[in-house]
Amino acid sequence: MMRYVLRRFATMVVTLLLISLLIFIVIKLPPGDFLTNKINELRAQGEAASIAKAEAMRAQYGLDKPLLHQYATWLGVLPGPDGFKGLLQGHWGWSFEYEQPVKVVVGDALLLTVLLNLAVIVFIHLVAIPIAIYSATRRNSVGAHLVTFLGYIGLATPSFLLALALLFYLNRWFGISIGGMFGPDYTDAPWSFGKLGSFLSHMIVPVVVIGLAGTAGMIRRLRANLLDELAKQYTVTAKAKGLAPGRALLKYPFRIALNPFVADIGNLLPSIVSGSAIVSIVLSLPTIGPILVQALRIQDQYLAGFILLFVAFLTVVGMFIADLALAVLDPRIRIGTGK
User: Fold this and answer.
1) Residue 311: how many CA atoms within 13 Å on its side-chain side?
2) Exposed/middle/buried for 5, CB within 10 Å: 0-12, 13-18, 19+?
3) Best CA proximity match to 91, nearest among 224, 207, 105
């Protein structure tokens, strides 16, 4: 087991290095960069002093160097100019748009993004699993057909459209403003019990909006998997031997039906982070989604590169956790036995 963990950890490191290179190349594919575009804009305005400052910054951060040299500097393999440190030294780069270190720009947004998306994952599983079990065990009931219909509605409704509808109708009917993650009194205030309560109350609508499509999809897939397992011979035999219905369901078919969802843990968090970007813009949520969209639009390479690398890190770590969870969940899977 330890050899497996060490081997997977080494694979994760190599994978992240390759992904970081790919991310940096993709970000640099459009012609120019933030400072080059800024210089062209200032040159058109005839501001000589600002042009000189921007050109000095290009040299300071090595943006006039070849692509691989810039990547090695960002990574921290090569020493950067004027003491510039890279990712391996714990520095995430510099945001040219905000004129601050990337760590400062994404600090609070990163924490709120993780909290929001963890809440979405909990919501998806708490809602989807009981409904899927109900609809699978009561296959032809009115409730099962209603759940199926609502699942189609959830999959067909765009998240940003639902967010816009809730913004409008909740404000019109109840006078409730659901934008942002804090009330007006707590936006810039330090953390306290009052701010925590405001945060939790403002989390309800974003969690429902972002998690609706994932919940509907999980209900349909888990229901289909359960129906397939319930029709197999081992389930029929367990019931024939007098095993209690609830135990016969949870001990065998339910565990096996969960395998695809456990294996999909690595894709769940990144898909939620990327899929919630538009919803975050609509609801004015201070997460990294809007920051990433803006950074990509203006080619703020260090800021966009770190956020994309963070999403890739979530994917790789999620895949690792999924492999370990599968080995615990399904006794047919053994790590390191070659079977």
Assistant:
1) 21
2) middle
3) 105
Amino acid residing at 298? I
Asked whether the beta carbons of 320 and 8 are under 8 A apart, the reply is: yes
Q: Tell me if 260 sits within 8 A of 221, measured CB to CB.
A: yes
**CB 117, CB 273: distance < 8 Å:** yes
Q: What angle do CA 14, 82, 303 make, to 5 degrees?
A: 50
If you write DSSP's letter for every residue of 224-289 in order, what string do you get?
HHHHHHHTSHHHHHHHHTT--HHHHHHHTHHHHHTHHHHHTHHHHHHHHHHHTHHHHHHTT--SHH
What is the DSSP-derived secondary structure letter of residue 95? E
The encoded tokens of residue 67 equal 């692509």
Render pLDDT for 72-93 as a digit per residue (tens, 0 to 9): 888 877 776 665 667 877 778 7
Q: What does the alpha-carbon distance between residue 247 and residue 176 come to, in Å, rounded to a whole number?
A: 45
User: Which of the 8 DSSP states describes residue 88?
Assistant: G
**Distance, CA of 203 to CA of 181 (rounded, Å):** 7
Q: Which residue has the tokens 């720009």?
A: 105
Residue 192 phi/psi, 5-degree rounding, is -155, 180
pLDDT in tens, 226-236: 888 888 888 87
| C-alpha 56 chain-centroid distance | 36
* Cα gap 208→25, rounded to integer Å: 36
Q: Which two tokens stand for residue 312?
A: 């890739």
Structural contact between residues 139 and 200, judged by C-beta atoms closer than 8 angstroms: no
Q: Is 185 helix (H, G, I), strand (E, B) or coil?
A: coil
| Overall pTM > 0.90 | no
